[in-house]
Amino acid sequence: MDITERFKALNEVDSELGSLLKQEEARQSRVIRLIPSENYIYEPARLALGSCFGEKYSEGYPHKWVKGERKHANGRYYQGQEFTNAVECLARDRAVKFFAPKGMEENYHANVQPLAGANANLAVYSALLNPGDRILGMSLAHGGHLTHGHKVSVSSIFFEAHQYTLGENLRLDYDAIRKQAIEVQPKMIVCGASAYPRTIDFEAFASIAKEVGALLLADIAHISGLCGAGVHPNPFPHADVVTTTTHKVLRGPRGGLIVCRRELGADIDRAVFPGLQGGPHMNKIASLATTLKYALSDEYTQYAKNVVENASLLSEALQQRGFVLVTGGTDNHLMLIDLKEGSAKDLDVDGTIYAERLEAAGIVLNKNAVPGDAKPWKPTGVRLGTPAITALGMGPAEMDTLADWFERVLKDEGSVTVVKAEVEELMARFAIPSWVG
Ligand code: DSN
Q1: What pLDDT is attached to residue 67?
Q2: Structural domains of the chain in order of their starting residue, each with its CATH number
Q3: Considering only CA atoms, which residue is closest to atom 4 of ligand 1?
Q4: Exposed, middle or buried by CB within 10 Å (0-12, 13-18, 19+), for 16?
Q5: Can you give the pTM of this predicted structure?
Q6: 37 CB within 6 A, ligand 1
Q7: Top mutation candidate among 38, 145, 333 for ligand 1, by most atoms within 8 Å of CB
Q8: How confident is the model over 163-201, as pLDDT tens digits?
């Protein structure tokens, strides 16, 4: 039975869910996806997600740790693991190959079981820190992530979290971070971001971490695909541990991944299971394995280059139309429009209003705080990125059209209906794969 036939069978037994699936697929096919953390999953990875591996319980690992060394002995608690073991090893080996510096793969270990990026970070903290230890991470308001020590996250409830902010030019200020690290003496420094459009200097972070005797965690959830493909500097060999989600630029299933120096592997594994999680989602791990095979291909490297090229073109086209971007542009896949400045300055359109108006026109992104926002719940910026539109095959011409739509929707609310029709026309040329027929 092909996928469309399977959907019909589902729809026959549950037309309520069937209808929601159809409507969501139709919505996705009509709108332009610019949320920089979303993507179209690599098709074979989507197939693996719906496979029989989803029904297998596999607590444990395909190996045992004996005196810090991984031994090929059964480390599972349930029987029937011949093929799940092979799948997990495949995913792990490919993850190390994608992220480790060439020729140094033996020095690294991967754990492919975290259910999400936040869980991966928590696993790293619980593996390598004691409750109450100090961490130093990037402030959420300046582009960091909740799990880097934000006050509502367990990362600041279980640990003593200190936060660094951007410098005056809204870029990472390594001298200021160094001074703060010397003052705070953290046990771990966390670098990486959810809303930072510029290159991260992992070597500079590692030198600060070394000076204060801290471990360095690089959470590269947003840019991991770019790092592995060589389009952004790689955190290894500088970081001790790298975490990422697997569904952003990487184009895999939703989930988390940890890669670390080999000697930290036993502690990381124990923290993930049994420390924080039960049975891994083997369908997600199978899906990740095939995503990583794709990520290691020349085709993916070209995709990653195109993502950055499109982001750069889009940022130029927006600035030509008077938009002000945080830091004046981008080095990676995302950008932040500051609506307090430039052509948006006197229009009384904040991040929420603009994101909603763009959505009405079929352009989907997210409102976002920009550095300096006094009220984080009323952000004055929007965040957008090119991973998904690049996966559909869009290029320079579409970046220009997009910037044009951004300008029209900003300046003239009445243009929304016309732009929506134009967006639908464009999306009809870049059809998303249909599963509902
Ligand atoms: N929600 C993710 C993002 O959009 O960046 C971060 O967790």
Answers
A1: 85
A2: 46-295 (3.40.640.10), 305-427 (3.90.1150.10)
A3: 37
A4: exposed
A5: 0.97
A6: yes
A7: 145
A8: 999 999 999 999 999 999 999 999 999 999 999 999 999
